[in-house]
Design goal:
ligase; BirA Bifunctional Protein, domain 2; seven-stranded mixed β-sheet; 3 domains; 426 residues; ATP binding; five-stranded mixed β-sheet; alpha+beta; single chain; globular; Rossmann fold; binds adenosine-5'-triphosphate
């Protein structure tokens, strides 16, 4: 399995992900997505939105405020329950999550631990100029609550009937005790979540439906079954709101850990947010009730991480590294090169192709060094096809198109480039 440091260094060298605030010595486990990282991340988010919102007629999206009324977190149970057990080493004062330790002594210095105490993970701040209790607010620790709080507004304005879902992509914040492992666990991260509202008697059916959807989503990212494990979370270990949870775990280079989760949240949240009356009325029977909820949740950053881990390939024979990204996720779909940078005719022809294709796809341009070096650079960032304009191009308006994975080249007419690429992006 690929060493995580290999991925971290490729990400930095090739503009995917940089350490946050690096020139100031960094900020504990914060990471910035660079020019190629933001493309990859956006492609994942757009694919998700298209698949789960646009292609379905039982789904709508929202984009809610990051900071919500603190009463939201009281009603949801987060103020009371959203905590991890924290222990501190009596010698070196390092802090750890008690449930993640395998031994009862400090991994840094062997010292003894304090008794565990519950540490609330919500990130606090103040709204308004006075830093006093009345102005205390929290950055949301999950995107989910907005779908419950906005449920009635969405159901009424969109005239949605059960079953239907509300989707959201956005940032969440958790004051994690032990962030780390690159973008696996950060204090600021992104989630893609769906709250899918059903009648109580249908929950099992839709739980199974979403299990299937989550499995097929992984295929879209190019993640095979080999490193995925589905874990049924037993009674006692589930979040306070859940009656059934299945975690999708992945074998990361640093161990098997959570990637995504699927939970049956019952009507716990809607009951707590709408205590005075049911927020849903069946248009036919007139019956009023609190719908039950199936919640599939996906971490965006963990999606980026597994996509990169699965795509990373070392071709020892050809001495190259390439990212075998599904073409629809690749930051650039294609790169265009003039065979020689000092031949104005070749450069002009290549520029013309580059400018035309750029209107439709993200396209890279490279005229440095030799073609071999340019292939090498494009392979490392996962560009599926490289187009080279050579002397024959000037005569018959064809170019070579080289395939990232096989290294094979075919001649394609310039007029056919657009369909050639489009067909392969589905
Ligand atoms: P973990 O057990 O790893 O702390 P969790 O069970 O608390 O995760 P959820 O509350 O189910 O996580 O959050 C939903 C998804 O959000 C997770 O499956 C994961 O993909 C992502 N996620 C959660 N915490 C973080 C984090 N600190 N950094 C990056 N992604 C995260």
């Amino acid at each position: 399995m690929t060493d995580i440091n290999t991925i971290i260094s490729l990400c930095k060298r090739r503009g995917f992900i940089f350490p946050g605030s690096e020139i100031y010595g960094g900020l504990a486990n914060s990471w910035d997505y660079g020019p190629l990282g933001v493309e990859l991340k956006n492609n994942i988010k757009q694919l998700w939105w298209r698949r789960f919102v646009h292609e379905r007629d039982d789904m709508v999206g929202i984009d809610a405020a990051l900071i919500m009324n603190p009463k939201v977190w009281e009603a949801s149970g987060h103020l009371k329950e959203f905590s991890d057990p924290l222990v501190e080493c009596k010698e070196c004062h390092s802090r750890f999550r008690a449930d993640q330790l395998t031994e009862n002594k400090c991994p840094n210095c062997g010292g003894e631990f304090t008794q565990p105490k519950q540490f609330n993970l919500m990130l606090k701040t103040y709204l308004g100029p006075a830093e006093e209790k009345a102005n205390e607010v929290y950055f949301r620790p999950e995107t989910a609550q907005a779908m419950f709080v906005d449920f009635k507004n969405v159901a009424d304005s969109m005239r949605k009937r059960l079953p239907f879902g509300i989707a959201q992509i956005g940032k969440a914040f958790r004051n994690e005790i032990t962030p780390g492992n690159f973008i696996f666990r950060m204090r600021e991260f992104e989630q893609m979540e769906i709250e899918y509202f059903v009648r109580e008697e249908d929950w099992q059916k839709y739980f199974d439906h979403w299990l299937g959807e989550m499995r097929s989503w992984l295929k879209e990212l190019g993640v095979g079954d080999a490193r995925i494990h589905e874990a049924e979370i037993p009674d006692g270990d589930r979040a306070h709101y859940s009656k059934r949870t299945v975690d999708f775990e992945y074998e990361y280079p640093f161990g098997q850990k959570e990637l995504y989760g699927l939970a049956y949240r019952t009507n716990f949240d809607l009951k707590n947010h709408f205590p005075d009356g049911a927020p849903y009325r069946d248009p036919e029977s007139g019956e009023e009730f609190w719908p039950h909820v199936i919640e599939p949740t996906w971490g965006v950053d963990r999606s980026v991480l597994v996509t990169l881990l699965e795509a990373y390939q070392e071709d020892t024979e050809k001495k190259r590294v390439y990212l075998k990204l599904p073409p629809k996720l690749a930051p650039y779909k294609v790169a265009v090169f003039p065979l020689l940078a000092n031949k104005p005719d070749l450069v002009a022809k290549a520029r013309e192709i580059y400018d035309t294709l750029r209107k439709k796809f993200p396209v890279a341009w490279d005229d440095r060094g030799n073609v071999g070096k340019r292939y090498y650079a494009q392979d490392e960032i996962g560009t599926p096809w490289c187009i080279t304009v050579d002397f024959q191009s000037l005569e018959d308006s064809t170019v070579t198109v080289r395939d990232r994975d096989t290294g094979e080249q075919v001649r394609v007419s310039v007029a056919d480039l657009d369909p050639f690429i489009s067909e392969r992006l589905v």
